């Protein structure tokens, strides 16, 4: 017997629309699947209908339908939770320590990753908010919203009701933040102290909302984890006509029958989209599935400039050492000879191999030279650019890099998502991240930084070295590792050299690259 | 830090087709998503292809596609896990304490519930095999297989290759058992001591395999939990022509184009089936989705007689007190007045109410009279009939009834699936079943009975009263509750009276019934 919940005295909360009944786990109150909005397909979300009586809020709600099914693998590195897919997916989950309206605890709102096309609020085991709420005494909210063509398909030229269709997924997030603003006091949260945070696509959702006027005032801070893509990740503002025309044609609808797209089963819509979009994508046309710069959304800050309101949002931002180099390597670094390693480095980086190796060892004296082969640049470089531009615009921004090596495959560098369990205080849920003598300490350091940041806008706490904000010319990077240190512009030379060696490496082609050098 | 796995030294096992790499959790070796067969749609499963190198076996495999999506609710009572759906779903998961070929531990193979149409090997959190393997020192296997029209759609009259289509899902289970017989020694299991067990539809899969010649010798014992439906649950042996004709018509295929059913996307096939089947079902026609008695499958024992080989399989069989009365009651039994309760009983049972109340209190002196309103009969009565017939045929059978009341909704009687965490030693994973001072003891009693039964064919152990086999005329029922007792034909009178009061109550209409008396 580990713990017992009181199931006969379940917490009931009055929301604006009606009462909901959650449950309690230890000292944490939990509410799941709360509907924050409803929406017709491609249309702007509206407030949910009111109800009488008490709705159950102990089960996770629907997650957005997706265009493709995942292939189950890599569960040791990133354990997943899948859930039931349905278009009525505007719902959120809450973990809190108090139901006192006066508690006014900081609110952390998690936007999940998976680009803008996949994932869910519960896709990864590490997204569970119970520990974060408990150890941080904060209110944690995780959000589901419309994804892929349901959330990001520009139909605006086909009617006023589709005005927001290009960014409907973002509109859902805004609706969630409005719901939070109106209701979170009842859950012990402070509606004036909301931090939005997310990883990968979730980070892009954070930066995206900063550039949407409609979201102003709905959050006060942001954390962007491995969430700044390079320009190969297209936020296309091109005309959507070619895509919609092809879609209608594939479905045997006329140009006048766009409304039929609202009613056909999602599976059919997805099938048609999957058939027509690759060709258009190859031609550089608009294919949806990412936010589209328009009247509602200015475009990403580093590209088009940050909105003045955006620069008022303090940010924590960073990435991890290895990111998309997730597949098993063809060798183990503790077994390979120096000669063989240098050959592999040469194979990859050509004439630049030796110089890169030297600089890598200067920049990362504690790392194995083999780690050069899994060094991420496609997140790190755009992140650095983001930091520079945001600081230049007067924004307050804290930079980090997560460089922990894991005892997996003889010492794997930190992969995409491997930092999430630390941020959520959930390394106990993801065993591979739970390294004896190491993880507990680092988890506390990272977690406390996040909580302090959510409370005050400053991540500094006594458990880490002094972490200054970054300026336009001086990036002050907190290195999260077995020993945490702050370093200044520490990898500029390395990244510049890397770019010379592999000028064409982008987020868009990293996966193929990855397949070439590893298996 | 709770536990650390050794991820740098992962266990690799040689199976007949190739090597697989699992992982270790504490002392338990875990292998997930092992493909035991492959099959073309509607066709007999074949051995998987061989491979070189090492396949990862640390991620759960695909689960069968389903006709309808679930609606998320009731997670406190039955917490779920969903997974990725794909027709290539013939895979299994293994938990074991030893990789010594000489260990020869008993093997327990779990067939999941959800009728023959839904669910998966990991659908419920309680299906996790780690604790069962650890606390019982046994090898646990859980199995995915084809469901609904993929597993049970009779196309046999359309070609020899479809000969097994009516029971393809069962053929998958047989293929899994063959794989186990050939490979389980490598996982420390005894291929000559295999117990198949399942709940609800999973129990029906156990009894079904007993009636299939092809499964003879592949298992030695069986456990059927809440898995004997009454005759309203149709295993139709009617001609499938009306269904297939309607299906072809709906899809605009001719009678000659049955093969096209093999190639269209499942979503399309499911949509057509969902459209045409309700009318045929209402007319009493064959609609698939359950095993069909034919040359391969004799039909259920209580209906058509047990095969001689079936009667050689020792069985444990039972059900739970409340089964499908799962919804919240409109009153709390600790708050309702005697008068109001008698009125409700009268509303439900008419003139029989008073006599039923008296008999109920004689039979269940420890229970609240209000529990009469949630007493299951639609599983209990057919289970009693099964026991009688099996004993009469010379079979060795142990009867149980799980009557635990849970501290939920002011004392909820045991619902369908509430016993599973006890059998798997997983009450710690399902908090509502984890009652202080109660669950640990009962869990050990039930779990040890299951393990002893798997080891020896006899569930008796020192922690429970002597549990005799049942005979044709004397059902010896182990009552699993706060105090375990053995009772003889203890509820015959009650059930007879109940049947007089509600002669038309069946499994098929219990849900409507349920909706009438509760909400």
UniProtKB/TrEMBL annotation, chains A, B:
> What are the Carboxylesterase type B domain coordinates in residue numbering?
11-479
Q: Supply the EC number(s).
A: 3.1.1.-
Keyword Hydrolase found? yes
Q: Which Gene3D superfamilies match?
A: alpha/beta hydrolase (3.40.50.1820)
GO MF term set: hydrolase activity
Kindly state which keywords UniProt assigns to this record, in alphabetical order. Hydrolase
Give the enzyme class. Answer: hydrolase
Q: Does the keyword Protein transport apply?
A: no
Q: Which InterPro entries match?
A: AB_hydrolase_fold, CarbesteraseB, Carboxylesterase_B_AS, Type-B_Carboxylest/Lipase
Q: Which family does it belong to?
A: Belongs to the type-B carboxylesterase/lipase family.
The protein's name is Carboxylic ester hydrolase
């Amino acid at each position: 017997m580990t713990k017992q919940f009181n199931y006969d005295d379940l917490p009931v909360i009055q929301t604006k629309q009606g009462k909901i009944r959650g449950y309690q786990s230890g000292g944490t109150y939990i509410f799941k699947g709360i509907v924050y909005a409803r929406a017709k397909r491609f249309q702007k979300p509206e407030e949910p209908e009111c109800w009488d009586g008490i709705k159950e809020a102990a089960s996770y709600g629907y997650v957005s339908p997706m265009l493709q099914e995942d292939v189950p693998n890599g569960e040791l590195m990133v354990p997943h939770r899948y859930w039931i897919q349905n278009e009525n997916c505007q719902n959120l989950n809450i973990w809190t320590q108090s139901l006192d309206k006066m508690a006014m605890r900081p609110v952390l709102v998690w936007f999940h990753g998976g680009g803008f096309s996949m994932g869910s609020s519960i896709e990864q085991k590490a997204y569970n908010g119970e520990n974060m709420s408990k150890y941080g005494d904060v209110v944690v909210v995780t959000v589901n919203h419309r994804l892929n063509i349901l959330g990001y398909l520009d139909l605006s030229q086909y009617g006023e009701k589709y005005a927001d269709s290009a960014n409907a997924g973002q509109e859902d997030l805004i609706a969630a933040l409005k719901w939070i603003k109106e209701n979170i006091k009842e859950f012990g949260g402070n509606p004036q102290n909301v931090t939005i945070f997310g990883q990968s696509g979730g980070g892009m959702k954070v930066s995206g909302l900063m550039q949407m006027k409609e979201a102003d005032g709905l959050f006060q801070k942001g954390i962007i984890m491995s969430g700044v893509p390079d320009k190969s990740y297209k936020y296309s503002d091109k005309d959507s006509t070619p895509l919609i025309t092809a879609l209608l044609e594939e479905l045997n609808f006329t140009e006048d029958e766009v409304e039929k797209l609202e009613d056909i089963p999602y599976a059919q819509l997805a099938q048609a989209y999957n058939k027509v979009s690759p060709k258009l994508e190859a031609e550089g046309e608009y294919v949806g599935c990412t936010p589209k710069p328009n009247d509602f959304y200015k475009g990403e800050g580093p590209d088009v400039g940050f909105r003045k309101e955006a620069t008022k949002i303090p940010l924590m931002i960073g990435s991890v050492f290895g990111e998309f180099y997730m597949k098993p390597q063809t060798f183990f670094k503790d077994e390979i000879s120096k000669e063989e390693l240098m050959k592999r480095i040469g194979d990859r980086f050509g004439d630049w191999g030796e110089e890169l190796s030297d600089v890598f060892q200067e920049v990362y004296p504690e790392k194995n030279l083999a780690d050069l082969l899994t060094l991420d640049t496609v997140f790190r470089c755009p992140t650095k650019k983001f930091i520079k531009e945001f600081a230049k615009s007067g924004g307050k921004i804290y930079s980090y890099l997560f460089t922990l090596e894991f005892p997996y495959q003889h010492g794997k560098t930190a992969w995409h998502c491997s930092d999430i369990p630390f941020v959520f205080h959930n390394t106990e849920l993801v065993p591979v991240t739970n390294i004896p003598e190491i993880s507990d300490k680092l988890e506390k350091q990272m977690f406390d930084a996040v909580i302090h940041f959510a409370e005050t806008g400053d991540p500094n706490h006594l458990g880490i070295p002094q972490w200054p904000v970054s300026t336009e010319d001086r990036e002050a990077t907190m290195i999260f590792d077995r020993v945490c240190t702050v370093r200044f512009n520490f990898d500029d030379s390395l990244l510049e050299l890397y770019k010379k060696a592999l000028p064409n490496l982008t987020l868009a082609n990293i996966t193929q690259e990855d397949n070439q050098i590893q298996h």
